């Protein structure tokens, strides 16, 4: 299988950065990586392994801030979620927007709704609530006891 | 003498489900830069979804888009059924695909009409929208609604398509096939449409990959991605059909892809109707007790491209997180590539070519001088500008005959 081979190579390449691998089936996989390696991981998937960046989903959980970067290998129908967990008090991660434009808007959105800071983003302005939402209030953040 | 002008397109229009403001910065006739503002209709649907049950969310996500109202429930169902590991019945699969393809038919017809209107071909507009009506009538017959069909649920569909209704669907499809022949012939052979759309608003393969564009926008640039083929769901793996692509990436290629896709949709629906005959009537849903803890990545091919839903469940009756990505979210960003360097007359059709549910230009666009703030062009004049160019080309052709 083409996708299996790709994943094997990926695992080999980022052996030290992979924290957890969850395989749902042949077409769905979640790989948790070290947040510091996100640019290298995305670069490998996008430039070498031929993945397409679909979108990213960020959420606030008890563990902190989590982001799933969804990559699609269209030829085999594989969706690979590259999962990172960010620090609760100071959530920040490198931006991917200098590599591909597809992540530009969604990073702005995640910054706006959850307060995650994307380092080196070319234009981290508000995307959807410019001028009508208070600064420093993040609608998708939750309160945990 | 060149005049620097800012042309805002948007933000509001009652027909448009995603109001946006586009600012075209022009030097004379040429668009030099484009900027946009979004969020005029931010409804917080992702947040709302966290407070609804899985059954209720179908009605919520159906209201994201007014034109392809079925594509979001489709992707959401795929995501939730992935979490719960559910395989729906074949009859439900066929019904889901029939609804999906009928929607593609009426959505593409709507686009063809609008594209015609933007080019100054109001006959095409009226024809296409007239041919679209019987499809909406079919929806009313099947689901009771012309739009927002409320057909999907976790584990299947809510309503059956009984054998008694099938001949009426075949009849509409036969009619539409003839009408599509007529439209395709009229559009593909028209030298004026060629002159207005070929080489206009070009997106290269690299642009598509860079912006992550999807659907007919990607396929018109030779990127053969289609979720129905790549990550098959519902009845798509059970029927024969092919992915339509074109190479040139211009407005003409996008029109060509959509027109030819309509034939594929008709063929898929016909095969699904045959499939329905082999399955037991009424066998449309399976009982689902609960949605377990887990993560689902659901996607579906909407008329405009891949719809993606990410659902994280903690085992309760509502999701912990529900992320939605509509195809226009990635397709609209390509305007930066397709519009810059074009004339104002061509920008209208280049924007429309992506089909961003974008039918507001005629009412909301106003051009004013960037220095004095004086209004120099209103919405109708902008459309007229595009129609004028078509007329000039027509006259050139006529004078050569």
Write the layout of secondary structure elements.
The complex is a heterodimer of chains A (145) and B (401).
Chain A: H1 2-13, E1 18-25, E2 28-33, H2 38-48, E3 52-61, E4 64-73, E5 78-86, E6 92-94, H3 104-114, E7 117-119
Chain B: E1 4-9, E2 21-27, E3 30-37, H1 45-49, H2 54-61, H3 71-84, H4 90-119, H5 122-143, E4 152-153, E5 156-157, H6 166-188, H7 191-197, H8 205-211, H9 215-219, H10 227-230, H11 251-278, E6 293-302, E7 305-314, E8 319-325, H12 327-331, H13 335-338, H14 344-353, H15 361-364, E9 367-369, E10 375-377, H16 379-400
Antiparallel strand pairs in B: 1-2, 1-9, 2-3, 4-5, 6-7, 7-8, 9-10
Return the average pLDDT of chain A rounded to an integer: 91
Counted by DSSP, the helix tally of chain A is: 3
> What would you say the CATH architecture of the domain at 2-90 in chain A is?
2-Layer Sandwich
Strand order of the largest sheet of chain B: 3-2-1-9-10
Instruction: Please tell me the total number of domains of chain B.
Output: 2
Sheet with the most strands: spatial strand order of chain A = 1-2-5-4-3
* CATH fold-level name of the domain at 2-90 in chain A: Beta Polymerase, domain 2
Q: Helical segment tally of chain B?
A: 16
Helix content of chain A: 10-25%
The CATH class of the domain at 2-90 in chain A turns out to be Alpha Beta
Q: Could you name the ranges of chain B where pLDDT drops below 50 across 5 or more consecutive residues?
A: 13-17, 358-367
Shape category of chain A:
globular
Largest sheet of chain A: 5 strands, mixed
Mean pLDDT of chain B: 86
